[in-house]
Amino acid sequence: MEMELESDPGLIKSTLFYSDQRLCSADILSPSQVCARMEVAVLNFLKALSSPNPAISSLPLISRRSENCGVRTGLLSDVASVFLSHSFFTRSLMRANDAKAFVRVWKVMQMCYAILKEGKLVTQRELFYKLLSDSPDYFSSQSQVNSTIQDLVTMLKCTRQSLGVMASSRGAITGRIILHGNGEESLDCTALGPAGHAITGDLNYLQNLSFQSDARYIIVVEKDAVFQRLAEDRIFSQIPCVLITAKGYPDIASRLLLRRLSETFPSMPIFALLDWNPAGLAILCTYKFGSIRMGLESYRYACNVKWLGLRGDDINLIPQNAFIELKSRDHQIAKSLLSSKLLPEVYKTEVEKMVSIGRRAEIEALYFHGFDFLGKFLARKIVQSDYI
User: Fold this and answer.
1) Which residues are marked as active site?
2) Which residue ranges in the chain fall short of pLDDT 50?
3) Which of 56, 89, 111, 305 is the most exposed place for a label (fewest CB within 10 A)?
4) How far apart are CA 122 and CA 115, in angstroms?
């Protein structure tokens, strides 16, 4: 149970780490800085317990609901990203439905403190099994751990990586780019097989990578199978490009690498190749704006990604027997997208068309015209600036 609180200056100043009045963000901190913030939190909690009128204080946390988010655009950038403002909810030990969530925050903080003191990094999955072993009465699912980590991010105003929790990456990269790691041999991605180079989940490593490229475009591919087809066809020899995939919904590591590339090569446009369905558009929006769930960090990973295809204008290329009926999950995602105040009108038009037709189309349906057609399709759309 979450109790919403209005944005109140008195409440804002009473939080542990006072910051900007309008926008909230998570800082990248050293282990010693994060540990210091944790120690302050514990001391404040103990102070409340030992006061003349002892009480168990509630934890004021930034709300991660859609009502508390907006889109911000940098003054010198065309990148827009999700932000959260200072509207709060509380975790309280005194509310029956909230007591376990309150305790979970302190349990995760204790575990992260130990991890940072040991100089280690763990994945959310590793953290879940350790907590399941140590505190089975409070942790029974991965989602509980993931949500509690985000509670801790909003409480301490630091990034997830700063807590010692690294991304679990599924992504891959290939094409006309050379990766230079600190003290390592350079990796020429044009020499790789169709699976490409696996993107590490260590965000610190990704932050320190340097790049060399003669590509003109970056193409983000939703699906691994399509990524491998394009790599197998060496599409980057025909279209000077870098290919990236997160193999579905984008993980933080893949998003960070894409952001690093966009900052290193600001004149290189980023195009997205996705299925024509609500889930594909949700994936595009995550790359482009970030997620509300991670609203304090979204601006660190957002990129100006342009929607190349598939779009409504492309479905005339799809044979009728290749369309798939929208399922209940598709309708749920479509409803969420249409109700979002973040979604541009041109995107809403696409979703409305999907819903009105009641069907969706996969990228692979273009193989109806031959396995080499996808490369021609991409080249034509890029040359004709057919993207939104």
Assistant:
1) 129
2) 1-21
3) 56
4) 8
Judging by DSSP bridges, how do beta strands 80-84 and 241-245 pair with one another? unpaired
The pLDDT of residue 52 is 75
Give the per-residue pLDDT at 46: 86
Using alpha carbons only, how large is the chain's radius of gyration in Å?
Answer: 23
Is the separation of the CB atoms in 99 and 14 below 8 Å?
A: no
**Crossing angle of helices 224-232 and 373-383, rounded to 10°:** 90
| Total count of residues recorded for the chain | 388
Exposure string over 47-60, b if 16+ CB within 10 A, otherwise e: eeeeeeeeeeebbb
Find out whether 189 and 215 touch, Cβ atoms under 8 Å.
no
Mind spelling out the 3-state secondary structure of the chain? Answer: CCEEECCCHHHHHHCCCCCCCCCECCECCCHHHHHHHHHHHHHHHHHHHCCCCCCCCCEEEECCCHHHEEEEECCCCCCEEEEECCCEEEECCCCCCCHHHHHHHHHHHHHHHHHHHCCCCEEHHHHHHHHHHHCCCCCCCHHHHHHHHHHHHHHHCECCHHHCEECCCCCEEEECCEEECCCCCCEEHHHCCCCCEECCCCHHHHHHCEEECCCCEEEEECCHHHHHHHHHCCHHHHCCEEEEECCCCCCHHHHHHHHHHHHHCCCCCEEEECCECHHHHHHHHHHHHCCCCCCCCHHHCCCCEEEEECCHHHHHHCCHHHCEECCHHHHHHHHHHHHCCCCCHHHHHHHHHHHHHCEEECHHHHHHHCCCHHHHHHHHHHHCCCCC
pLDDT at position 19:
39
Q: In what order do the strands lie in the sheet with 210-212?
A: 187-188, 178-180, 210-212
**pTM value?**
0.83
